[in-house]
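Quick one: structure for this chain?
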Amino acid sequence: MEIWLNPACSKCRTAESELRAAGVEYTIRRYLDDPPTVAELEDVLGRLGLEPWDIARTADARKLELTLPPKAADQRAAWVRLLAENPRLIQRPIITAADGTTVVGRDPESVARVIAAD
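Got it. Here's what it folds into:
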């Protein structure tokens, strides 16, 4: 299992606590220090069944004074590039189980789902 996290994020700390409490083995990826590539983001989005704008932190985009592309299929690649170049915009934590089950672990139910899949 792998968890993409920002140690300053309370949701990330809570999710990591839940993983520890469940006794699952996991690796940590501090995605701000080791940003995902476009290919990795495409893979995660495919497993999540989401579009890139669904995992974007738009409030952070405003803080960074970034202009967001329209949420449209023809702008999907631009969104993925934007997330890869600005990992702070990626919703967190993202947790992937060994079987490929992937969640944005912002709530206990999502974290429980990925733990059950491990």
